[in-house]
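Anyone able to model this chain together with zinc ion?
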Amino acid sequence: MRRLSAALFVCLWFTQAHCATDYALQPTSVADGIYVFSGRLENFSRENGGNIVNTGFIVGSDGVIVIDSGPSRAYAEQQRAAISRVTALPVTRVFVTHAHPDHFLGNQAYSPQIISALPATSEAMRTNGDALADNLYRLVGGWMSGTQVVLPGIGAAAGRIVVAGRSLRLIAASGHTDCDLMVYDERTRTLFAGDLVFFGRAPTTPNADVPRWLATLDEIDQLDFATLVPGHGIVMHDHAAVAETRDYLRWLDQGLKEAASRGLDMNEVMRLPIPERFKKLALIDGEYARSIAHLYPQIELKSLPALNTGR
Ligand SMILES: [Zn+2]
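re: yes, here you go
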């Protein structure tokens, strides 16, 4: 009897340990040969294991192109397994859109020789990667087991490129971070926008240059896309996600500048009302507070000369 309970205990432990790192990734087909793994509209937690991000893949004629490897080694190993259930073709390229941990900490599941990023993104991963990984360990725990930073082996450059028999346009931009890559598939007119576009979830701004980001959104609006995969949020087949991201960032930018010109302190800015149309965005209260903490000190500093000349 004692042996049976011990066996049962081991079995339960194994099941729980196994389930604890099962991301249950299910690819959704969003265009011909284009698939997306949709993350939850949540903060990092021990429940979601960091699966708060959209990653995706493109099936070419002789290989598969992955866009972002996700938050952990376990995630990307499961991403890879899920891809192999769709096609027998090997993954021949992984593009990293930007140096945020939920987008690149799965690199380890792939050979560095097939991982590609813009040079400034690789540099940011080299400089900050370990600290970002440590922070994610703290936030999501065991899901990160065995995860280490793996740097891209191929430098990406803006322009047309044929990969795995698929004609792509790599678009170098900035605003969400100082280096954001977008991947545009010419055959299906699908744009992987990375975190330059959010939908249904408040944008994050820890490394953002908001005016620069707004200018990039204008450039995205000029692109002829039929499908847009945002970094976080629902895949769209129109420009609604671009419009929502722009609307929010414009309100945030103008609101903070106006608050600084009135001389409000950070606590007063935190208490300013959030418009009804943004209250429906996931994580709005937390992201708004975080954005004020990131952005307001700089905006306040810039507004000082104007205040001084008014004296
Ligand atoms: Zn990001």
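The longest helix spans residues 284-309.
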